Hints:
Layout: H1 11-18, E1 23-27, H2 33-46, E2 55-59, H3 62-77, H4 83-90, E3 96-99, H5 100-109, E4 122-123, H6 125-143, H7 147-156, H8 158-172, H9 181-212, H10 220-235, H11 238-244, H12 247-258, H13 269-296, H14 298-322, E5 324-325, H15 327-340, H16 342-351, E6 354-357, H17 365-374, E7 396-400, H18 414-425, E8 430-434
Parallel strand pairs: 1-7, 1-8, 2-3, 2-6, 4-5, 6-7
Amino acid sequence: MQKTKVPVLSxxxxxxxxxxxxxxxxxxAGSGKTTVLAxxxxxxxxxxxxxxxxxxxxxxxxKAAAEMHERIYRRLKLSRxxxxxxxxxxxxxxxGISTLDSFCxxxxxxxxxxxxxxxxxxxxxxxxxxxLADFSLRFLLENQERQSLLxxxxxxxxxAVLSGFTRLASGYxxxxxxxxxxxxxxEQMRVISRKxxxxxxxxxxxxxxxxxxxxxxxxxxxxALMSLQKELASLGEPEALARxxxxxxxxxxxxxxxxxxxxxxxxxxxxxxxxEAIEEARKLCAEFDGLLGTLQKRELLEELYGxxxxxxxxxxxxKRLSGILTFADCAGLxxxxxxxxxxxxxxxxxxxxxxxxxxxxxxxSLQKELxxxLAEKEGMTSEGIPRAEDLDREKLFFVGDExxxxxxxxxxxxxxxxxxxxxxxxxxxxxxxxxxxxx
Length: 439
């Protein structure tokens, strides 16, 4: 059996191990990132900056956590002749090396009763998905006579509606992070109104352009153009029409252009411009029709968004009653607990002097928020999630490779990892690259 030796680090690996500021390590495949994490762990102990119980080491899967635990333990055994390291080896059963999901669960179990949960809740994605699929079916059957759901079913079919509600329940609703559907409805109406105003302005510019075409030649297309120009001019200034008319009325004015017969090939500059105007009017009218169609269903949409609020509340109650949570639920409530309970947050802030996270490209904004809460400066308690400038400048060490993100189905968002370096750099952090492949 080959004897394990202390690894010889490259210059870039040593820079990562010795980094003192909050760091984001972009580690490509085969770059030795596990070696770097183990060596950094050893350095924190050797320099007396932390004990094994004060270092939180997180990764994405149980297998990776087990491998990390073994690698770090073997590295410490290489220096067991050092009395300080020997003492840490004797305490290694207290080492905080786990998955991020497991850590979130441990945080939540201490605050579960506050959120209507039993501390014995379970994390089971498959069981949760089945539970919520069954519940979604029951909910739709109970509410199928409500007008908005009835219309939604007529338009899309029951299977599609059921699939959509199931996806909402299992992939969009997160305990501790409620969605405000009524606010979404109000925002949707505001967006539609704004888009109608913008479309009306483009329509006015289109009408102004048609009036400016210099027609006067012979042929049916020229005559149609001049007739349209005369009709449009009689209605008034295009900008005034767009401003003063109801959107549906102004759409009817644009319809006068849309309904024109589009000319064929021509060498006439005027007819070519007329042809282009007709094409633009047809696109614009289709846009108006879509926006106005949605606006006409405003009452149905308002009812539907209200039903979604009810559905969300029922889903949350179902999760609490069953005690079956998803990983996102656990993270959402752990973040909420640390945000709302200053004493709980201070306990974890004081407990962990260093936090190292591997495979962070497969995490999301909720998990980043949790780590920011753990890294908040001593003596500070932000009302919400701490900003980058509110963090202890030497606590966080993120490792990841955006090219290896494979867990997007679980809500992983590689953009979070991409934005970390810039965000931490604003408060004195640094980006370190491990680009050399040693395999």
